[in-house]
Specification:
CATH class of chain B: Alpha Beta
Helix content of chain B: 25-40%
Structural class of chain B: alpha/beta
Structural class of chain A: alpha/beta
Bound molecules: flavin-adenine dinucleotide, adenosine monophosphate
Distance between the termini of chain B: 69 Å
Radius of gyration of chain A: 27 Å
Number of strands of chain A: 22
Oligomer: heterodimer
Strand content of chain B: 25-35%
CATH superfamily of chain B: HUPs
Order of helices and strands of chain B: EEEEEHEHEHEHEEEEHEHEEH
Largest interface: A-B, 97 and 81 residues
Shape of chain B: globular
Largest sheet of chain B: 9 strands, mixed
Number of helices of chain B: 7
Strand order of the largest sheet of chain A: 11-15-10-5-8-9-16
Largest sheet of chain A: 7 strands, parallel
CATH architecture of chain B: 3-Layer(aba) Sandwich
Strand order of the largest sheet of chain B: 11-10-9-12-8-1-6-7-13
Chain lengths: 396, 266
């Protein structure tokens, strides 16, 4: 909807200027009223004009809660440490903040003994303000409590943008926060931009199995919320001497309760998180058999890396699911990714294409994996990989 | 005890194309399937009612054609189904979708558990489950890989997180989202197929659901798709083919060293 002055009808009485609650009407050089960008579409002027010279064009849009300030991110922790995903969010938030000139604020849940130290770490990487909630129950992810605290902090301080990581934790509780606030949430974004004209957040994400990219906006509700796929951006570096403030928020004041009881916590069989490794040697259907992964494991060990797998290899039972790279597995961004016997279906590529360096070995010179490789070797993995292993071993 | 399974009909994503002019997804000629993740939810719904008695009900919000997917649910062994379909639901994002589904679930008495897939193939947001939980005021357990027991008004499940499992106990009614490790979905039985052909699929529209008009469809959807484009990858690539595997191995290791990785070899 748009509010417009019909110049021919305007008699220059200025009643509308007095009535406008947003100071959004001015007089032009010809003594006629005109509407400026400050207009909030409230329609007060339309009703106030004694000569019906102001009209509303188009349908009325909701401006329900479209106000907010600052860019917030949820600082995820793991075993009492700031998780790397938090620094990735911080990097995105800082990129945006330079374009809309708003503060970058973290929401941090911590136990009492660690809150101050973790907050200082966030600040040293470029966070302007940390909203810190401390309580012993916050050592573990308690879904209901996280929803309650996050939603209440948002309602209290009204951020403009709220980012969280698309980890299993973020994807579990953030949607419920969005539903409680009644705002939009864009899942699993791989890029964020600011629209230069409207200053709205442009949320970019793969969709339809990675075949398409979509740009999503949330115009009329605040905060503009998004979860961000891990490993799509570098971590924010330390900025020496960066200053920020810590706002202590009282846990009790929000009286959180948890309906679901945690009975037991146990490690999965897999002890390494492939997302945290700098080198990944990945295998696909080309390996032909589960036991051939031993060869990849050996190479990965020699290079100081870990083993990843395509979905075809995981579905065949050759590697456990936590090693799966791609759309339905993990997104990884190691320094070096070596793809062995992987064709490079789009669902695999979206999970690894932002790796710093990619090497692909495939006997089919037309395999799409070669589109993303810095170095593509056409050849047989059963000959090349043993040769690599031999060369490294002979040297040591 | 009723077990509600939320399923979505999705296009088979491997074959998606977009019209470059209208930026709309070309749906003609693309087969529709039950979201593969939801088949695990369906299987679990059927197993739970076999284990603990009660009724399994599949619901979906979608266009009238979605009734074909509901027939597949019946063929698999789901007791009854409901189709939520109305022009007013068009343009729903996850918030409006979960509102609509939760309004329908509210109308069903004696619900114990709402089961969703981990995410849909098309949007892959995984947001609908947690948002339904919020609208219904039910507790939720995400990424469930095993239901240990349902007894005395509680459900006990094991859920997967990135690097650990958690055993959790929630009061009923509750929402869970399930992952593929939870079970092996069964195929339709002959008896089921016959039943599904004859079944009459109940249709609920906005009028049946009540609630606030402005929470449905486009009006109830805060997010808007502003643009959509095909995913392209552009990169400088060096592709090499050597006769001898030793040469290839040498080339790779040299390159790795050039990039600054500290490995040594002869
Ligand atoms: C919704 C959806 C989600 C998906 N999610 C994922 C995901 O998360 N991750 C994922 O990986 N896939 C995913 N897929 C599957 C994806 O489409 C592909 O099917 C899969 O990645 C193929 O795995 P692959 O490359 O190992 O197997 P193939 O496509 O069979 O490729 C094997 C390759 O090995 C080569 N090869 C064979 N023998 C040798 C040899 N001796 N030496 C050298 N090369 C050899 C062949 O030339 C071939 O290119 C998804 C699909 C869908 C529909
Ligand atoms: N239109 C729908 N009708 C019924 N269930 C749905 C619908 N959309 C999503 N769901 C459920 O919510 C889960 C997550 O979907 P999504 O949030 O779209 O990725 C799916 O696996 C379904 O169980």
């Amino acid at each position: 909807m748009e509010i417009k002055v019909i110049s021919e009808k305007c008699n220059g009485c200025k009643i509308c200027i007095e009535k406008c609650p947003f100071g959004a009407i001015e007089m032009d050089a010809n003594g006629k009223a005109f509407i400026t960008e400050r207009c909030n579409l409230c329609m007060v002027c339309v009703k106030a004009c004694p000569v019906q010279a102001i009209e509303a064009i188009g349908e009325r849009q909701k401006k329900t809660s479209a106000e907010g300030k600052d860019i917030w991110f949820f600082a995820e922790t793991k075993r009492d440490k700031i998780s790397y995903v938090s620094y990735e969010l911080l990097n995105f938030a800082r990129n945006i903040s330079s374009q809309i000139n708003q503060k970058v604020c973290a929401v941090l849940f911590s136990t009492k003994s660690k809150g101050e130290e973790l907050s200082q770490q966030l600040i040293s990487h470029g966070t302007d303000r940390v909203y810190l909630v401390e309580d012993e129950t916050l050592a573990e992810f308690r879904h209901d409590i996280y929803v309650c605290l996050t939603a209440n902090l948002i309602l209290k301080h009204k951020p403009n943008i709220f980012l969280a990581s698309a980890t299993m934790l973020g994807r579990s509780f953030i949607p419920q926060v969005a539903a409680r606030i009644k705002t939009g949430l864009t899942a699993d974004c791989t890029d964020l931009k600011i629209d230069s004209k409207t200053k709205l957040l442009l949320q970019i994400r793969p969709t339809f199995g990675g075949n398409l990219m979509a740009m999503i906006m949330c115009e009329n509700y605040r905060p503009q919320m998004a979860t961000i796929r891990p490993k799509t951006i570098d971590e924010a570096p330390v900025i020496p001497g960066y200053k920020g403030e810590i706002i202590q928020e009282s846990y009790k004041s929000f009286s959180p309760t948890c309906r679901v009881e945690l009975i037991k916590k146990e490690k999965t069989e897999q002890t390494i998180d492939i997302q945290e490794s700098e080198i990944i040697v990945s295998g696909g259907r080309g390996l032909g058999d589960g036991k051939n992964f031993d060869m990849l494991k050996k190479l990965a060990d020699l290079l100081g890396g870990v083993v990843g797998a395509s979905r075809a290899a995981v579905d065949a039972g050759w590697m456990p699911y936590p090693h799966q790279v791609g759309q339905t597995g993990k997104t990884v961004k190691p320094k070096l990714y070596i793809a062995c016997g992987i064709s490079g279906a789009i669902q695999h590529l979206v999970g690894m294409q932002t790796s710093d360096y990619i090497i692909a070995i495939n006997k089919d010179s037309n395999a799409p994996i070669f589109k993303v490789a810095n170095l593509g070797i056409v050849g047989d993995i059963f000959q090349i990989i043993p040769a690599m292993i031999k060369k490294i071993e002979n040297n040591n | 005890m009723k077990f509600i399974v939320c399923i979505k009909q999705v296009p088979d994503t491997m074959e998606v194309k977009i019209d470059p002019k209208t930026k709309r997804i070309v749906r003609e000629g693309i087969p529709s399937i039950i979201n593969p993740y939801d088949t695990y939810a369906l299987e679990e719904g059927i197993r739970l009612k076999e284990r603990f008695q009660g009724e399994s009900i599949a619901i979906t919000m979608g266009p009238p054609q979605a009734d074909a997917s509901l027939r597949e649910c019946i063929a698999m062994g789901i007791d009854s189904v409901i189709l939520l379909s109305d022009r007013a639901f068009a343009g729903s994002d996850t918030l409006a979708t979960s509102y609509t589904l939760s309004q329908a679930i509210r109308k069903i008495s004696d619900v114990s558990l709402v089961i969703c897939g981990r995410e849909a193939l098309d949007g892959s947001t995984g947001q609908v489950g947690p948002e339904i939980a919020e609208f219904l005021g039910f507790p939720i357990i995400t990424y469930v890989k095993e239901i240990l027991n349902i007894a005395n008004g509680f459900v006990e499940c094991v859920r997967l997180m990135e690097d650990h499992y958690e055993t959790l106990k929630s009061p009923l009614p509750a929402v869970i989202t399930v992952i593929k490790e939870i079970n092996e979905p069964r195929l339709a039985s002959l008896k089921g197929l016959l039943k599904s052909k004859k079944a009459n699929i109940p249709l609920w529209t906005k009028n049946d659901l009540g609630g606030e008009d402005k929470s449905y469809g486009q009006d109830g959807s805060p997010t808007k798709v502003a643009d959509i484009w095909a995913h392209e990858i552009k990169k400088e690539v060096k592709i090499i083919q050597h006769d001898e595997p030793e040469q290839s191995a040498e080339e790779i290791l040299n390159q790795i060293k050039d990039w600054g990785f500290a490995i040594k070899w002869k």
